[in-house]
Amino acid sequence: MATENPLRSTGVPDYELEETIELTTAEQVRAISDPLRTTILGLLHERAATVTELAAAVKRPKSTVAHHVNVLATAGLLRVVRTKRVRAIDERYYGRAARMFYVGLGRQGEGSPLPHDFNDFEVAMKESAAAYDAGQMRSFIRHARIPDERAAEFWQKVDQVIHEFDQLPRSGDTTYGFTVGLYPILDYPMLPPVAED
C-alpha cells in the first residue's frame, strides 16, 4: 500500500511519516471523503494532536471527533505517534500515516471500483467565498491541448510544489488554502488544424 519512500521528518509536522500512500481500498477512500475527516487530516499536517485538541479546534464534541479519528485510524490514514501520561491516563497523540494520500486513477479495490475521492474543488469553492468577496482571492485557470504523457510530466512538477507547501513552517495568524487540479475536458473547443500553404 505504501510507496517505497522512507520515513522522514522535516519539522512539519513534528513526527515521522511517509511521503505518500496510495489509497487502494474503498474503506480508505470513504474515510477521506468526509469534510470533518479531511479537516482533521489537515490539522495534523501541522503537528500531532490528541482527540481533545482536535475537538477544541473543530468545535465539535469529543465523542464525535473520536469516532472520526477511529475511522481514519482503522483505514490506516492516522496512527498514534506518541503518548503522554496525564493524571494516570496515557493521552494518545495522533499523526498522519503519510504527508499525502492519493487515489490511483482507474485502480480497483477488493474486486470493485473505488468510490469517488472527495472533490477538492467543491471544498475550495466553499472555503474561498469569503476571500473572493474581500478581494483576497488569488487564482487562475488555464487550458492546454497536450498529450497524456506531457500532462503526467507537468503533474509531477505540481506535486513537488504541493510537497513544498505541506512542509512550510506553521506560523502567523492566517491559514491559507492551496488547491490545484489537472483534469481532462472532453468537450472543450479546438481550433481546426493549420491549413498548409
Report what the structure shows.
With 197 residues, the chain is of the alpha+beta class. The chain has six helices and six strands. It has helices spanning 26-32, 35-43, 51-58, 62-74, 120-133, 148-166; strands at 18-23, 78-86, 89-96, 98-103, 108-109, 112-113. The strands form three sheets. It has a two-stranded parallel sheet with strand order 1-4. The chain has a two-stranded antiparallel sheet with strand order 2-3. It has a two-stranded antiparallel ribbon with strand order 5-6. A hairpin with a 2-residue loop joins β2 (78-86) and β3. The N and C termini lie far apart (55 Å). Mean pLDDT is 82; it is low at 1-10.
Give keywords.
197 residues, alpha+beta, two-stranded parallel ribbon, two-stranded antiparallel ribbon, 6 helices, 17% strand, elongated, disordered N terminus
Strand-helix topology:
Blueprint: E1 18-23, H1 26-32, H2 35-43, H3 51-58, H4 62-74, E2 78-86, E3 89-96, E4 98-103, E5 108-109, E6 112-113, H5 120-133, H6 148-166
Parallel strand pairs: 1-4
Antiparallel strand pairs: 2-3, 5-6
